[in-house]
Amino acid sequence: MATKPTPRGYPLEHTRDGKPRFRGCVKVAEYDYICKLGEGTFGEVSKARSKKTGQVVALKKILVHNEKDGFPITALREIKLLKALRHPNVLQLVEMAVERPKDVTKKSNMFMVTPYMDHDLSGMLKNPRIQFTEPQIKCYMKQLLEGCKYLHESKILHRDMKAANLLISNKGILQIADFGLARPYDDAPPQPGKGGGEATRSYTTLVVTRWYRPPELLLQLRNYTTAVDMWGVGCVFGEMFKRRPILQGDSDLAQAQLIFTLCGSPNDQSMPGWNTLPGCEEVTDWGDRRPTIRQTFKELSPTGLSLLEALLKLDWRTRINAIDALQHPYFHTHPLPARPEDLPVMEDSHEFDKQKQREERKPPPAPAGGQVGIGPQNEYGFQDRSRPYDRQSGRGGGRPPYANGQRRPPPHGQNGDYPDHRGPRPPRNNDSYDHAYRQPRHYDDPAYDRDRRPPPQYYDEPYSRRPPPDTSLPPRPPAPEVDPPYRDRDDRPPPRRIPPGAETGRPPADRQPAPIVDTYIPAYSSADPHARPPRNVLRSAIQGQPGDPTTRRAPLPPRDDAGRPISRGDYPPRRGSGEYDDVLSYDDQVNGDPYPRRGPSSVGSYERRRTRSRSPQRERIPDREREREYYGPGPRR
Amino acid sequence: MARHASLAIISNSLATSKQVLELKNRDATTSVVDANLFKTSLLTQFAGLLLHLPQEVIATSIIILQRFLVSSASIATEIDLLTTSQLIPEASLVSASAASVYLSAKQSFYPLSPRSIINVYALLTSPEASLLSFINSNATGIIHSSEPPNSRNYHVSEGAYETHRQALFDAESRILASLAFDTKVVLPHTLALTYMQALSASTVPLAERVLAHLNAALLSPQLLYLTHQPNALAVAAIYLAAREQEVALVDDEVAWWEVFDVGREGLGFLVLSMGSLNGFVEAEKVSWTGN
User: Fold this and answer.
1) Pairwise CB contact (< 8 Å): B107 & A76
2) How do residues A206-251 score in pLDDT, each as one tens digit?
3) Which residues lie below 8 Å from residue A108, measured CB to CB, with a gap of 6+?
4) Scanning every residue of chain A, which has its alpha carbon at the shortest distance from the alpha carbon of B115?
5) Would the CB atoms of A21 and B173 count as touching at under 8 Å?
6) Contact residues on chain A for B17, CB-CB shorter than 8 A
7) Residue A357 to residues A32, A315, B10: CA-CA distances in angstroms?
8) What is the pLDDT of residues B64-104, one digit of tens each?
9) CB proximity under 8 Å: B 7-66 to A
10) Which of A11, A634, B31, B246, by CA, is between 20 and 30 Å from B1?
11) ipTM here
């Protein structure tokens, strides 16, 4: 029974389906468990089907890690935001489900119920057998921008835009997921033609996964705008062509370097106000580099390049906003964006996971957030999942839900051929899709309904009982005193990095001849251990080698899932071994702190700048701090 | 909801009349339910004051608590406690009150530790030390007492704290589950001030009276915040306050409330409810002391 709207609109006592507003959560028993999708520090994500509607969903269990604080505030925020949002390109929170244990002394478990999505963009890009055509890229970009436009006009900052958080269904629908870092935006939403506008309010800069972090955040702009998300969109856009994150910095400083190598050094024209910002790790001089973006992305069409440049604009005030980006000629010139339903159904990626996972650099985790928990790829664990076993065709194959580098052969055939429940498999030849783009058709029709294909028959049931992953980590070295700049959040073995020459398709930005060498050896280390280097010393050291300021701090060791450092011997050498690690290796930090600037007096500031972990086991930034950030600097007693 | 994103800023989810009826019909004499509702709301208000929470957060707590009670009316269990006629509310009602404060403080500028909340509730439910006269018959109801009550009466030992904290978290989970996580609360206070400006009647005495009515309405056993939208509550409070202070708002002939999307009937009901609250509280007080 549907509620009838009164002349004044829908009554607020009922939801649209006529149920009372305060009716409680459904029981999780309303869902049939299908299989486990992922597991990590964030808890467990399962695939399930609603007994009532038949909808296939993902159930994300909310772990109450910290017994001290009750229900995690980060989860509360995420739920509150998701409840207020509804858009075809934003992952919808279907409802909350509760599981009451029979034993009353045990805690009840809460689940976030979201529609099941087949892939995430990051996983698709890692699968070399999935090739994107330009109309397909345009289609995804268009949906991504529609989602962003909606979020921004609803005054929400997503703050963790990245390929892994973009889920894609087999119907070609892209949805923005993971609102664990999102927050309401207090200033006016972006206006057409006015970029991101100006913000009056300050927020924390400890947001956005580093590789997708915009320059103004790296330079510590606190009153940032919706433009931070647009930078991430630009990174994703480039990533769709390069098939890997385009800016993979090992540290915040290296990230800034990569950005300024690609987009040119900041100056008063390209980034007005840049020199009034605090700077990245106290570095404020970025040399005088020319942008290399046009050479780096020569494979893009002129309109594509123009859009990419508009998205990756250093000046956050004039960086294109989602409204304008949707009007960009890129989406209105041939080849026109494909319609989602015309996109090929993606094949599964299980042939490649293991290999890919070894090769791939893991993205650094998103900073803050919390116990809601985010996996390395995305919190829903949709990465690279295979299509379920299809009974009709008897083909397809399950793959365990990503993550561990650990894989069993699928129970059913895995011949790479995949069933298409919607008809014959589309040819792999890219050109053959052209018919779909010739007419300027759009996907604006409301047929965004969820995937309701026949139920997978518990095809990968064995995986729910699969053995614990073999993390194959070496014995732990003693934990260094320092905090890691980031830590890895999954159990995969550390990535093997490939020297730039050996890798094809590496963005030339990374192959720039000038290696990032830190020739500046901090002379102050023998002096007063609490003294910081005077800024001008640093600057003078940087000058003379334009294009290559410096990391004064050695990259910190990677961490494994429990926050313990992965021993250096087993961690792959940094790309281009002539890099700065020769000057300052992290071992120095283990043995003794050669960075006197982090004296007792500066600990506080370092603490504040540290990338925060989402893992509950490790020392947590007190929720208080996050709360203060989230709601602003409240006049707390 | 999103389609009415702008409207969502000034509107609340409401309880159905059926839900409210179910709640009231738990007992043959609704007065027991009413009394318990009032006491629990008052307890929450006092706790919020002792915890130095701003009224905004306290009001949110009370509304969340009432939503919880209403939504669990059909589930029974807790709600049966509302029908027990005794002076001190049942322990699980106290936990629910504490958890609603905890939950709304957590989502506000002013997060609180479980310890602070448990300490304050220990004080408030102590028959010797409570500031609430339905719990402690000697209570003056004044918070800024120059003679602090003997702390022995409300000391929370480490062991008791663990137990209380567990109860607090359990209640928090129950509340969230009952509300299906709908913790968004819109308050009428700022709306009322805006309306007064629109009516060119923005004076301090009138504003004080309007806010007093709005805050008192939180305690109403008629659960006005669960059955009426913020705009209606704001208009009713302005109407009542203006009548009391004999402030002429606009021409008598003009149905100014319709400008704020409030019907004459709804306004009448609210004015009556808000106006009758005083009588209800007086009667309650008599029943507490027994004279």
Assistant:
1) yes
2) 889 899 999 999 999 999 999 999 999 999 999 999 999 999 999 9
3) A98, A99, A100, A101, B173, B174, B177
4) A68
5) no
6) 13
7) 31, 35, 49
8) 999 888 887 544 444 455 555 565 667 778 889 999 999 99
9) 7-8, 11-19, 52
10) A634
11) 0.79
